[in-house]
Amino acid sequence: MDLHYLTVILLGIVEGLTEFLPVSSTGHLILASELLGYDASTWAMFNVIIQLGAILAVVVLYWRTFWAVGMGLLRREPTSWRFLRNLVVAFIPAAVIGLALHKYIEELLGAPKVVAWALIVGGVAILAIERMVKENRFHGIADIPFVRVVGIGFIQCLAMIPGVSRSGATIMGALTLGVERRTAAEFSFFLAIPTMLGATTLELLKNGDKLTSATVGWSSIALGFIVAFIVAMLVIKWFVGLVSRHGFTPFAWYRIIAGITALAWLSMR
User: Fold this and answer.
1) Domains of the chain, residue spans
2) Which residues does 178 contact at the CB level (< 8 Å), separation at least 6?
3) What is the pLDDT of residue 209?
4) What whole-number distance in Å separates Cα of residue 29 and Cα of residue 199?
5) 112 touches 262 (CB < 8 A)
6) What is the distance between the alpha carbons of residues 5 and 7, in angstroms, rounded to a whole number?
7) How far is CA 147 from CA 144, 151, 155, 187, 188, in A?
8) In this predicted structure, what is the pLDDT of residue 1?
9) Are 46 and 11 in contact (CB under 8 A)?
10) What is the model's pLDDT at position 266?
11) Where are the transmembrane segments (predicted)?
12) C-alpha dihedral (173, 101, 99, 158), degrees to nearest 10
């Protein structure tokens, strides 16, 4: 197989594996670009767009939830409206701050050492939060109070620093604000849909004209999308079961080890 398509498949696997785990998919894609030695800027839009494959996995796996919410909205059920309100409210901070800081965020995407340090700091933060959080009062997305949803939305914005992890920031923020583990994970999955759709739309509006002439064209994006979708389908089910039984500590130690390894490797280059 052509080396180019092997790279496409590898990045699709990395995206599908890491998008919903608290380990930073963007950070891993940046480190993968350094490890493989290709031009990260050439693949930047590819890395953003294939996230939609992982997002589609959420829609497929939780279609019954979305169907129930949709039917509830038509019947004006309060629970369904609170579910929708919470997703929209939590998304707004990322939309506003992301637009305002887009240029600065793009600059950070070319800084692998930032990713390595963010992995380590994030791992330590997860260990600390796991020790501190004992009580979970909210066991459904619709049950999370408005003020706490706003807090989760702002905490998600920390993921604009590559290596922090959008899912990790959202989940840990939700836990500190009293949300039960499984609900925190699922809220992170659902919140990824508007967040990633917004990021992809912005990327296409800014750089969509480059796709037809770039090394990474639509065929590569389609393949990466499919690979990310299939892998994410498997990961989501496994992840929910794991955190329900063992919490997030394994991912904290993984982040710390990966960050230290990346720093050591980057220092020797």
Assistant:
1) 3-268
2) 135, 136, 137, 138, 148
3) 62
4) 16
5) yes
6) 5
7) 9, 6, 13, 15, 17
8) 54
9) yes
10) 84
11) 40-63, 83-102, 114-133, 145-164, 184-205, 217-240, 252-268
12) -10
Over residues 161-185, the mean pLDDT reads 88
pTM of the model: 0.84
Q: Which tokens in the block code for residue 241?
A: 């079961």
Residue 144 is predicted with a pLDDT of 92
C-alpha 216/C-alpha 48 separation (Å) is 12
In degrees to the nearest 10, what's the CA dihedral of 76, 80, 82, 84? -110
pLDDT of residue 78: 92
Tell me 140's DSSP state: S
3-state secondary structure of 116: helix
- Torsion angle, alpha carbons of 10, 12, 14, 18, to 10: -170
For tokens 């498949």, name the residue: 9
SS in 3 state form for 133-152? CCCCCECCHHHCCHHHHHHH
The pLDDT of residue 133 is: 78
Give Cα separations from 34 to 115, 137, 231, 240 (angstroms): 11, 43, 22, 31
